[in-house]
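User: Quick sanity check before I run a bigger batch. Here is a single chain. Can you write out its predicted 3D structure?
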Amino acid sequence: MAMNLNKVRTRKRLQLLLVSFLAFNLANPLFAQRQPFTSSSEILHGMKRLNVLGTVLYIAAHPDDENTRLLAYMARDRNYKTGYLALTRGDGGQNLIGDEQGIALGMIRTQELLAARKVDGAEQFFTRAYDFGFSKRTDEALAIWDKQKVLADAVWVIRSFRPDIIVTRFPEDARAGHGHHSGSAVIAREAFVAAADPKMFPEQFKFGVSPWKAKRIMWNTFSFSSTNTTAENQLKIDAGSYIPLLGKSIGEIAAEGRSQHRSQGFGAASTRGTATEYFIHTLGDKAERDPMDGIDCSWSRVEGGQAISTLINSLVENYNVNHPAASLPQLIAIRKSLNGIKDAYWKKVKLAEVDKLIQQAAGLHLEALADRSLVKQLDTLKVNFLANNRSGADINIAAIGLEGITEGQGVVLKKNINWVSSFNVPVLASKKTSQPYWLEKDMAPGYFNVEDQELIGMAENKPAFILSATLNVLGEPISFEVPVRFRIVDPAKGEFFHPVYVLPVASSLDSKMHTIAYEHIPNLTYFSKVIKFELPKDLKIAGKSIGYITGAGDKVPDMIKMMGFDLTELGPNDITTEKLKQFDAIVVGVRAYNVNNWMGEKHEVLMEFVRQGGNMVVQYNTNSFAGPLQKTMIGPKPFGLSRGRTTEEDADVVFLDEKDPVLNFPNKITKADFSDWIQERGIYYADNFSSDYKAILSMHDQGESDLNGSLIVRNEGKGRFIYTGLVFFRELPAGVPGAFRLFSNIISNPNKKINGSK
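Assistant: Done. Predicted structure follows.
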């Protein structure tokens, strides 16, 4: 598998190069998360959940693969402990909201998943697998990921989470549409078997897990676009219910969760009414009427659980929606009973639920705010802790502790009176810096190098500073963990909260810090090695002035400037016949026609620029649900946009016309210029183009026929028009020499002399 070897050799290099171009920006304080609030009806909903002891694990490949409707239904309606295991963090996808790629995009998509889980009520897990980009074959995905490592991770999550049933999003065959998708189904099926086998991955048992046999594994069939895998003879359930205590239907909750995937353009409209979900049996005991057939989800599954169930029933029956704190004695009684059961798993799960309900019913607000979001080792962090007992229940402080400092013993929390204590916390040199745990060590080909078993599966690091508040609630000592955060109050938008990150005491000459900031996720900080590259020494350009129409965000403009061109970013008001005369070429960014509704209105102006001797280059766009072109003309003659792509970055490239200027001016392009490409050759190729256009290159993945739409050219009037699906947005930031030489040829005006001279 020569292609696989080349792919994995370039993977580490790709990540280091990609992150080296991410800007470090601390200037915008508005991007963060808001304070959550809980209504009285939501407390009652949580109380009812106490009586349900069922667990569901959903498994797929990427962020946004999950069926948010089914997750919301299982977690919010059926009240099961529900989780989503995404094998990857989505590092290899495209980005519609910014220019982050690779591991930075994976960090964004991780947080988008966590935001979705806060909406639908499920939990989030990952394996160490790296999303290396689109894969057409299951065997390729499993080989690059190192199948045994990913399988071990899935087994660990199953043994830790202990699902009653496992549900996959995809089948194991071509209907999955992606090698990662089908690979996730293979991993899920094999992990279902392996998790129950004490001979498989026995090294995990010393960390507190034991073999776990789920009742069944099922495939949640789907109807996507032209692929419909559902059938009326499959097991069916209605997942479109309405939940009065939450004031929302499952369709509304699911759409809100789905819309958190902003980087992928997955904003969704709310739906109401019945909604059928379909399932096909894979392994285990077959279900006949419901996915949870034959599974006892009551307290009867736990020795001594019936007494707890009786207490919970009484709690729910006597709940006063206008006075939740009246339920505190019953909640405390349930908590004491939970401490007496032998089932360690359900004890831990239900104690956490009860403690959360106690805090909510008491109206107990606990808050720990730092004086900054970034603090260096050997510095001192000031933290203000605030506690407010808004119900007036009998609550006093046993101890408030932070980094070995203890305060507040014996303080009585009076009704609706803020109690505040300040901590000056020394940040020791030994305090761990805030690097995402999966990035602490250099990546291995295809997966993140994580050796700590107890980190496997975690979605993110624990907060850098966690305040422990042990309170006596009606005489019962209960400990609450309060993450230390940084708050910004913006006059226009109100309060926002940021995580607190620990920085090294001194910056290295070979390390760079990056911050990612978007309003729908918390600020993210991480470190990367500084990797520099030089442009090819023999690189030539022709023409000098480039007008760039930005699209969904990429680093190509910076790369064009590095090449020696003068670049001006253009908006709709800049695209006039007179203003375009100053440019030698107009370059259109990735997905510009998808995200700029005004592009169609400027078509004739752009075509006139070409006819008058200009060079126009359009990078890839999509004709999909994420910003359809809606019949907008792109070039001087019609052509289509397909989903055709070449995923093997070492796929052989055939020159269809070696004499065409795009392969000869100002740089002579040879096969060597397609060496060392990363992730893929190209995506979203042109199709349905006539002899009005000339195809320059031909290539194909293993076992497939040739694709000729990666680079098409048409001479129009005195100028030239080009559409290319070649992934220059990946290759140029990665410093691929041949990509620079070819891109120079594409954007250089053939009517100008080399090096921009007149």
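The first helix runs from residue 2 to 19.

User: Great, the batch can go ahead then.
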